[in-house]
Amino acid sequence: MQRPQVLFLVKFFVILVAAYLLIAWNPVNDHVIVPFTTGIAHFSGALLRLIGEPVAVVGTIISSAAFAVNINNGCNGVEAMLILLASIAAFPASLRARAVGLVLGTIAVQLLNLIRIITLFLIGAHYPKYFDASHTAVWQIIVILSAVIFFLIWSSRVGPARLAART
């Protein structure tokens, strides 16, 4: 493996571990992650009501007469965002390109995660036997894979080889 790839991997893992430790720290979890997750639950609940689902939202729990789901850490899209953050921050690109990548990537991951939460709620309410497989096997893979694919597309557009070819 060449030196730039090793340097990228080292930076990626250091940033990823630091970010995970930061969000696991109780003050950050309690004052940033939990309110963020509560916001996701309320927004998801509003979208579910918009499509005709009679749901109530309390904190991070979305419920109806048929089903309830609690959006926990790991289901709020934060882990996928951290993987993306670590990848983009570790990649040799301009500060502007990184900022654009982080903003667009965060939006993409969170939009996909909203779709995930809504479809999982609908599956749980209407097709409960498919919920566990959809939750653990299908959607977790899709959300993490989307962050990886976003990074690959972004990095191919802003990477050093691409920049050198423009000059």
**Main sheet record:** 3 strands, antiparallel
Strand order of the largest sheet: 1-2-3
What structural class do helix, strand and pairing data support? Answer: mainly alpha
> What amount of the residues lies in strands?
5-15%
The helix-strand sequence is HHEEEHHHH
Q: Please count the helical segments.
A: 6
**What share of residues is helical?**
over 70%
- Gyration radius, in Å: 18 Å
Average pLDDT for all residues: 93
User: N- to C-terminal separation?
Assistant: 27 Å
Low-confidence stretches: none
How many strand segments? 3
- Apparent shape: elongated
Write structural notes for this entry.
The chain is mostly helical and 167 residues long. The protein is elongated. A three-stranded antiparallel sheet has the order 1-2-3, covered by helices on one side. Helix content is 76%, strand content 5%.
List the helices and strands and how they pair.
Blueprint: H1 3-24, H2 26-50, E1 56-58, E2 61-63, E3 68-70, H3 78-90, H4 95-126, H5 131-158, H6 160-166
Antiparallel strand pairs: 1-2, 2-3
Helix pairs in contact: 1-3, 2-4, 3-4, 3-5, 4-5
Short structural summary:
The chain has 167 residues and is mostly helical. Helix content is 76%, strand content 5%.
Annotation keywords:
167 residues; mainly alpha; 6 helices; 76% helix
